[in-house]
Amino acid sequence: xxxxxxxxxxxxxxxxxxxxxxxxxxxxxxxxxxxxxxxxxxxxxxxxxxxxxxxxxxxxxxxxxxxxxxxxxxxxxxxxxxxxxxxxxxxxxxxxxxxxxxxxxxxxxxxxxxxxxxxxxxxxxxxxxxxxxxxxxxxxxxxxxxxxxxxxxxxxxxxxxxxxxxxxxxxxxxxxxxxxxxxxxxxxxxxxxxxxxxxxxxxxxxxxxxxxxxxxxxxxxxxxxxxxxxxxxxxxxxxxxx
Length: 242
What we know:
- This protein is mainly β.
- 3% of the residues lie in helices and 55% in strands.
- It contains 1 helix and 15 strands, in the order E-E-E-E-E-E-E-E-E-E-H-E-E-E-E-E.
- The strands form 4 sheets. The chain has a 5-stranded mixed beta sheet. Strands 11, 12, 13, 14 and 15 form a 5-stranded antiparallel beta sheet that branches. The chain has a 3-stranded antiparallel beta sheet with strand order 3-5-8, with no helix packed on it.
- A hairpin with a 4-residue loop joins strand 6 and strand 7.
- The protein starts with 25 loop residues before the first strand and ends with a strand.
- The relative contact order is 0.12.
- The mean pLDDT is 84.
């Protein structure tokens, strides 16, 4: 529909719109055209108007994952789930749907009076090595559903070894500029440096537990340092050039 409204002497006008009861839930646009007979140029503004029949309040979920980035077969992975309303009040009996792609199944957990629940599983003994997602969404009759939250878990048969190796490597400074120094508790056989596009910048043999290299020629950005130990273990480090 179209209608015309007059602007007062201060240059203001108001418009009240009543949405018909049978209007479908969607985003609509209110097109406003300002014109005056002695002004040749018109100005047009499009204002989005979201129509929703769901008048329930929003609720929000936070997830604390107390699991290493890499875990092995049979290892436990644990999530603490907290659901609150917009004012930060806990929501009891929120139903959290958990789609677990490691287990290839779906489960439901409920929040307690503090708005907290937990999800604890063990990696199957026959799980293939690779990256998996656990997907969460909270539901409650009095609130709108939360957004889907994805958490990644990497099943790695060498997870225990890699976790130990990561703590034995020191890369400084990070962020870096002209030089990068690497020190390790074990001998590093090979290093590879790639940029965010996967292009190889450096690939060289080291055979040492301490080394440095000039990075002055590198452009600012994020890089990936891949270190290979003499017994074949691969360790990855994210580094940033400023």
